[in-house]
TrEMBL record:
Keywords recorded for this protein, A-Z: Flavoprotein, FMN
Protein name per its UniProtKB record: Flavoprotein WrbA
Keyword match Transcription regulation: no
MF (Gene Ontology): electron transfer activity; FMN binding; NAD(P)H dehydrogenase (quinone) activity
Protein species of origin: Herbaspirillum aquaticum
């Protein structure tokens, strides 16, 4: 059994929908046990959820991109992760991340860089998307990895869209493939 924890914050529901798509992709891999851990509006998770993170083979971080980085709620969680960091509880776990913003760019890469740095501080093994971008003239908005990210999963939801309207189907399908990749990679590193 490969245990995967997806810990995320979602302010409006778009990142939650992205997290659920990552979960669906991860859960579709044989032998995967996947848990969604939502960071509260106060930036906290329960002691049981901290224990789930410690027991996971892979941790996937998720946050919307607000003002060029993670939400304050995610940052509060990240700061609290100094406790497992001190004893290197997440060392050699597979790490990965995703983010969503209203524009195609939205400085999502700086959010992924922050999440990558968090993973590196925890001595994790980082996994990117492993997906080629859809960047030809024939590419359509709902193609796989249309946003074109390698270091982590990116999605775009228009600022006036509801979670039912965004992220778009192509971004959600990309999220499913990403979730499956993380599980498959974690299974290779499992002791």
């Amino acid at each position: 059994m490969t245990k995967v924890a997806i810990v995320y914050h979602s302010g409006y529901g778009h990142t939650k929908k992205q997290a659920e798509a990552v979960q669906a992709g991860a859960a579709g891999v044989a032998g995967a046990a996947v848990e969604l851990i939502a960071i509260s509006a106060e930036g906290t998770i329960t002691d049981e959820q901290w224990a789930s993170l410690d027991a996971a083979d892979a941790i996937i971080f998720g946050s919307p991109t607000y003002m060029g980085t993670v939400s304050w709620q995610f940052k509060k969680f990240a700061d609290a992760s100094s406790k497992p960091w001190f004893s290197q509880k997440w060392k050699d776990k597979v790490g990965a991340a995703f983010t969503n913003s209203a524009t195609m760019n939205g400085d999502k890469l700086s959010t992924l860089h922050y999440l990558f740095t968090l993973g590196m501080q925890h001595s994790m093994i980082w996994v990117g998307t492993g997906l080629m971008p859809s960047n030809s003239k024939a590419a359509q908005r709902n193609d796989i990895n249309f946003v074109g990210s390698f270091s982590g999963l990116m999605a775009q939801s228009p600022s006036d869209s509801s979670p039912e309207e965004g992220p778009l189907p192509g971004d959600l399908e990309t999220a499913k493939l990403f979730g499956a990749r993380v599980v498959e990679t974690a299974a290779k590193f499992k002791k």
